[in-house]
Design a protein that fits this description.
Order of helices and strands: HH
Largest sheet: none
Strand content: under 5%
Number of strands: 0
Radius of gyration: 15 Å
Distance between the termini: 45 Å
Structural class: mainly alpha
Length: 72
Amino acid sequence: MAFLVWTHDQKFGITVIDDQHKRIVAFINELNDALETGNAEETNHGTEGLLNYTVTHFEFEKEFQEKPAIRF
């Protein structure tokens, strides 16, 4: 059973951002699974993956927000 479940009410409305948020939820669930099994190697791997992906995601969001909106 998943620790966190992605639902449509969490949708931001920008596909690339929503996809990244879904991936973060998946990383959290993978890390939770590793913690539950007590496997230190998987836990370390999951922690590192979640940390790296989250940092990259926030950098992407910052750049995304700083871009001027395209208006038609």
